[in-house]
Specification:
By secondary structure, this protein is an alpha/beta fold. The chain folds into three domains: 28 residues, no CATH class; 117 residues, Aspartate Aminotransferase, domain 1, CATH 3.90.1150; 246 residues, Type I PLP-dependent aspartate aminotransferase-like (Major domain) (Aspartate Aminotransferase, domain 2, 3-Layer(aba) Sandwich). 37% of the residues lie in helices and 18% in strands. The protein is built from 16 helices and 17 strands. The chain has a seven-stranded mixed β-sheet with strand order 4-12-11-10-7-5-6, sandwiched between helices. Strands 1-2-3-15 form a four-stranded mixed β-sheet. Strands 13-14-17-16 form a four-stranded antiparallel β-sheet, covered by helices on one side. A hairpin with a 2-residue loop joins strand 16 and strand 17. Helix 4 runs antiparallel to helix 13 and helix 5 packs across helix 13. The chain binds pyridoxal-5'-phosphate. Pyridoxal-5'-phosphate (PLP) binds next to helix 6. Pyridoxal-5'-phosphate binds next to helix 6.
Length: 421
């Protein structure tokens, strides 16, 4: 099938060589479902905080595969650990245990400061971790599950039932029942939901900082109130730290920041994204005997979850974060970067928020997609997660000099950038 080319397309067609990005993009659209739309670039290689596209252009990756590549790309320690594990024992199923899996579970319980009796279940993604959480909620025998407006918990049916966005939910209804959405960060609404004692509430599911909704932290005191009300009602307090966990905010888990969680202990935490440093994996941490035994023998399962390669990736990622002091680096760099962006006083920047290296630049006009497109042209990958919000979630190994490249880019943006018609 050869289409006639208009003369003005000839120049573009000339760029379509067998290994060019344009060529791969054509093959992508012909071979992959259109669920994600057209890819922005076709990437072939990464190193540290940089990636390269099929045409040889380099980009500073300030999104890190959506808050995933904590150690950047092709980190030598992580690459070596994954390769060594795969060359020793790659997969065994959960009919068998492996030392790496046990060691990672123990590491997670320790960094979560989970009490005696706590347990871990390994999955392969954030969605799957939240699916397990939904099943735990059902096992309480209580019908109601509370989540927040603006929430994102994943795309499988159970996780989707917890996700607020209508465009994601409506094509797939009916979803598992019993989920109710409370207004974001509204303590009165939270009190009202528990006003009758909450004996029929199985769980309250919260992101300490809503990621997909635009890096929105819960207001101070909200998590403490949530803990008090769920404890009184005998309901589970479940924190989705898929995006905020594993050092992203400069603490192992976001709720461990005194000003976010105020020292609370949740009943359940779900993890994924940064957990394997880029290797796909998820986990659920159940705190204490009660939560840890809700899913009994035979009540949940997975073929791949907790496989030795994923577990080695998780252990090594944690080890490098610790060895290289990346939690403190993430806190310090995040703070100076946010301050530097604010200090620009650029008329397009309404404000900067976030924690550690999970940052939102709020714009004064709905031009986030345009700004992200200009950034890409300038060699910077950022994410327009709402029409007015740019999200930055770079590798935790980002240097101050690299962060400064984005600040300089913002400074150079035209003051009068207007929404495209
Ligand atoms: C990304 C994300 C998920 C879904 O994780 P997947 O690995 O894409 O399935 C769930 N919850 C939150 C808060 C997320 O950011």
């Amino acid at each position: 099938m050869s289409a006639e080319l208009h003369p003005q397309d000839a120049a573009a067609a000339a760029l379509v060589t067998p290994d060019s990005g344009a060529h791969w993009a054509q093959r992508y659209s012909a071979a992959l479902m259109d669920t994600f739309g057209a890819p922005q670039r076709v990437l072939v290689r990464g190193e540290g905080a940089y990636v390269w596209d099929a045409d040889g252009n380099r980009y500073l990756d300030l999104l890190a595969g959506i808050a995933v590549n904590a150690l950047g790309h092709a980190h030598p320690t992580l690459t070596a650990a994954i390769s060594a594990q795969l060359g020793t024992l790659g997969h065994v199923s959960n009919f068998f245990a492996t030392p790496t899996q046990v060691a990672l579970a123990e590491r997670l319980l320790a960094l979560a400061e989970a009490p005696e009796g706590s347990r871990v279940f390994f999955a392969n993604s954030g969605t799957e971790a939240n699916e397990a959480l939904m099943k735990m909620a059902r096992r309480t025998g209580r019908p109601r599950v509370l989540a927040l407006e603006g929430s994102f918990h994943g795309r499988t049916m159970g996780a989707l039932a917890l996700t607020h966005k209508a465009a994601y939910r409506e094509p797939f209804e009916p979803l598992p029942s019993g989920v109710e959405f409370l207004p974001f960060g509204d303590t009165d609404a939270l009190e009202a939901a528990f006003a009758d004692g909450g004996a029929d509430i199985a769980a309250l599911v919260l992101e300490p900082i809503q990621g997909e909704a635009g890096v929105r932290p819960l207001p101070p005191g909200y998590l403490a109130l949530a803990r008090k009300l769920t404890a009184e009602a005998g309901a589970l307090l479940a924190l989705d730290e898929v995006q905020t966990g594993m050092g992203r905010t400069g603490a192992w888990l976001a709720h461990q920041h005194p000003h976010l969680g105020g020292g609370i202990r949740p009943d359940v935490v779900t993890l994924a994204k940064g957990l394997g440093g880029g290797f796909p994996m998820g986990a659920i941490i159940a705190y204490g005997e009660h939560a840890a035994t809700l899913l009994g023998r035979g009540q949940h399962g997975t073929t791949f979850g907790g496989n030795p390669v994923a577990a080695a990736a998780g252990l090594t990622t944690i080890g490098v974060i610790e060895r290289d002091g990346l939690l403190a680096h993430t806190r310090e760099l995040g703070e100076t970067w946010r301050a530097d962006i604010s200090a620009l006083g650029h008329p397009l920047v309404a404000g900067v928020r976030g924690e550690g290296l999970l940052i939102a630049v709020e714009l004064t006009a709905p031009v986030a997609a345009q700004v992200a497109a200009r950034a890409l042209e300038a060699g910077l990958i950022v994410n327009p997660c709402t029409p007015t919000t740019l999200r930055l979630a770079p590798p935790l190994i980002l240097t101050a000099e690299q962060a400064g490249q984005f600040t300089a880019f913002l400074a150079g943006l035209p003051h009068d950038l207007a929404p495209e018609a």
